[in-house]
Amino acid sequence: MAPELTDQPFSNGFAAKILVVDDEPRLLRSLSSLLQERGYEVSEALGGRQACELVNSQAFDLALLDLRMPEVDGFDVMSHIADTQPDCGCIVVSGESSFTAVSRALRRGALDYIRKPFDPEELLATVESVTGKQSLIKAHEQVQFRLEKSEALHRYIVNSSPDIVFMLDEKGRFCFVNSKIESLLGYHPAELCGRHFRHIIDDRDLARGTYALQGPNITSDNPRTLEVRLKTRGSRRATRHFEITAFPIDPQTWQHTENTTGNFNGKTAHYYGTARDVTERKEAEAFINFQAYHDLLTRLPNRALFKDRLELAITHARRNGQKLAVMFLDLDRFKVVNDTLGHAMGDRLLQAVTHRLEKCLRKGDTLSRFGGDEFTLLLPSIHSHEDARGIAKKLIDALKAPFQLGDHEVFVGVSIGISLFPDAGDSMDQLIQNADIAMYHVKAKGKDGYRFFSDSMSIDTANRLNLERDLRMALERDELRVYYQPQVCSKSNRIVGLEALVRWQHPERGLLYPRDFLPLAEETRLIGLLSERVLDKACQDVGRWIRAGHPDLRLAVNLSPIQVEHPKFVETLMQRVAAHNFPAGNLEIEITENVIMNDLEQISQKLRELAGLGVRIAIDDFGTGYSSLNYIHRLPIHTLKVDQSFVKAIRSGDDGACIVNAIVAMAHGLKLEIVAEGVETDEQLEYLRGLGCHQVQGFFYGPARPALEICKALGQSTARAVAF
Question: Which residues of the chain have pLDDT under 70?
Fold first, then answer.
């Protein structure tokens, strides 16, 4: 038996007693506190089962409940309240907003429907409104109460629906439309009644929308559902997407009347339907589609979209007998920036590079980010090599100017491989692969340039793959050998230094020299591991000779640009030196001018750190690069090494001799030591001695030799020509 409710109306000073039901404790406490602060007497029920128990034992004026609850859901609680306390009103507070759920809740007796997350002021206003209505309803006859409740139910279903609800006559003119259309599209219901629904359909969907209701198979059990764009009123707001469901009205079940109110003409209604706003879903689908085919960092087409466009361009070119070009672009020195300044700056650099590259494109070209710092470019409908060559030059020139990243000024270049259809391949994969192969040939020749693919590159690439495999195996099998070439004092003929040079004892091809495999090692990033092996072995050998009675013996090692440009170059180098207890003052590192000029600021700092630790710095192949007196004067450089091409040209009146004269004179003026490479004859040696060249190395004293032979030579007081 239901407990007796109070007969005292709320307006006479009695606080309404409210039951709050939810299966989320935090939300339950929040809602309860909100109502208690407004003066309501609140009881809490954690879930539907507890709510039913409280309804059996206590009387309530109002219940606020969720729909989705385990075991006993909100619909069951509403049914129990209706059976046990019919005078207790219900307000649904739920995240479920579908038309079906709202309709079902209201049919079960809900007085209002509040969607989560709720606005506190809106909820309190709704509660006050409902409790106020209850106080009035209690003063009237029971029959009148039920009539008003029924009217409120239908009014809420139609006018408070999250969807647009409409009725159309047989010709498609509005008979009725609820007020939701005003908040969604800006139209007042009164201005649409009597007008054809095509008035609000976007022009792009007009034909499809107009004929949608003319299908012969539309019934109440088989409604017409379609998605169209509806126009907003005026130009202030964007077109929105709606999912429309329309049912034909059965005259046998539709009990209309001759009387109409407002703009509603129920007698002429032929269709009933709803229009749900799905704009957010469509935008989400468009964004997901964009993600699938674009790179989000640069906003460029990604690999998948590029391949789709290339496939289409190939089909078009084949049909019309035209040419097209595919370019494979790889940024030079990007990894240095990324490792030094961090990934955030690397991302900014990629965006800045993209902006410059896009300015070089023609209408119809497709630039894509293929991955990392690699880009691909499709040039459809070109006439000759010259069209592609012109674009390649523009791309290279576009990246020559420095990029400003915060307080840092950085330089990057680009290596470009080009393949032409149909000369370099007639399929998508062939064109991309061959452009990639051509790009690697640019890298091998010094970077920052372009090359067209040729058939000979395929042979080189096959050999390259085999050699790369063998080189990786060589590192695992310890097939690398360290040879040493003496650096001899030109006056005393004493060995003062040893340059460590790597050799590869290939199991099938015999002894390989650096020119045969070092370019590949740099391409494949194996150069770091290879150099570590060489440095370890050289420190062991030379360190042993130093401790055996040659304390001033100097070890010279060549370092690749990849090693020097690495952010932790100094730290890594000194760790390996210390691991072998090798004296830093006996170590001389050889780097080229180009490495220094690639990033003068960063390299300068690293060289100063090394010099501060006692390591000597030598400029290798001096005279073949920038040869800038400015950087030589600013950096802690100890030695200049004259390139062997100048030494070979030492003859009476030759230009090479003039260059050697200038370099030696400059070294003396800057108080630098000088080493001449490639000395092979008495004539060259005597000429260099006459200039005051401090040290020489070359075949005059023999080629580079294994450690065992060097050890024997060190036991002699002086080095002799081709003697060891």
Answer: 1-14, 136-148, 150-152, 154-155, 160, 212-217, 219-222, 234-237, 250-267, 444-446, 458-463, 597-599, 623-631, 651-656, 716-724
Residue 440 lies in a domain: yes
Q: How far apart are CA 645 and CA 658, in angstroms?
A: 13
What's the domain count of the chain? 4
**Type of residue found at 417:** G
d(CA 390, CA 365): 14
Looking at the structure, do residues 211 and 149 belong to the same domain, yes or no?
Answer: no
41: left (phi over 0), alpha (psi -120 to 50) or beta: beta
Nearest to 354 by CA among 333, 370, 336: 370
* Residues whose CB is less than 8 angstroms from the CB of residue 577 and which lie 6 or more positions away in sequence, other chains included: 535, 539, 584, 587
Cα–Cα distance for residue pair 74/668, rounded to 1 Å? 95
Does residue 154 sit in the same domain as residue 205?
A: no
- The answer to whether residue 141 sits within a structural domain is yes
Question: 175 with 142, same domain?
Answer: no
User: Encoding tokens for residue 552?
Assistant: 């001033």
**Residue 548: how many CB atoms within 10 A of its CB?**
12
Burial class (CB in 10 A: 0-12, 13-18, 19+), 202: middle
Domain limit, last residue, from 418, 453, 488: 453
Q: Is omega for the bond preceding 422 within 30 degrees of 0, making it cis? A: yes
Task: For the chain, state the CA radius of gyration.
Answer: 43
What are the pLDDT digits (tens) for 219-260? 666 677 788 888 888 655 578 888 888 888 766 655 554 444
**220 and 269 in a common domain:** yes
Of 420, 437, 453, which residue is a domain's last? 453
462 within a domain of the structure (yes/no): no
Q: Looking at the structure, tell me whether residues 243 and 104 fall in a common domain.
A: no
The letter for the amino acid at 225 is: T
Distance separating alpha carbons of residues 600 and 628, to the nearest angstrom = 12
**Whole-angstrom distance, CA of residue 394 vs CA of residue 400:** 10
Identity at 229, one-letter amino acid code = R
Q: Do residues 433 and 504 both lie within one domain?
A: no
Q: How far apart are CA 56 and CA 122, in angstroms?
A: 30
d(CA 478, CA 476): 6
Domain of residue 212 covers 164-253+263-283
- pLDDT, one tens digit per residue, over 300-359 is 999 989 999 999 999 999 999 899 999 999 998 787 777 778 888 889 999 999 999 999
Inter-axis angle of helices 303-320 and 428-444, to 10 degrees? 110
DSSP 196: B
Please state, in angstroms and rounded to a whole number, the distance separating the CA atoms of residues 386 and 207.
48
**For residue 569, what is the DSSP state?**
H
